[in-house]
Amino acid sequence: MSITKTAGDLIKKLREAEHLSQQELATAAGVSRSAVSLWESGQTQPATSRLGRLFDALNLGNEDRRALVAAFGAGDPE
Length: 78
Hints:
Layout: H1 5-17, H2 22-29, H3 33-40, H4 51-57, H5 62-72
Helix pairs in contact: 1-5, 2-3
């Protein structure tokens, strides 16, 4: 299993909670649909520079932002 599988599962869960397709999330986050697919499958993780747009696209509050960052092991968001 990939080390980012839990984070990928969380991105998928949050995306689905917002009723977004992978393409819609990709457009809002400024990435390709395949990038979102790779995140969700745990093969890659979002670049730190993309997290703000990802958080906004998923309409995340501080608690969910921290949970997602913790799942990636990237530390506490500013």
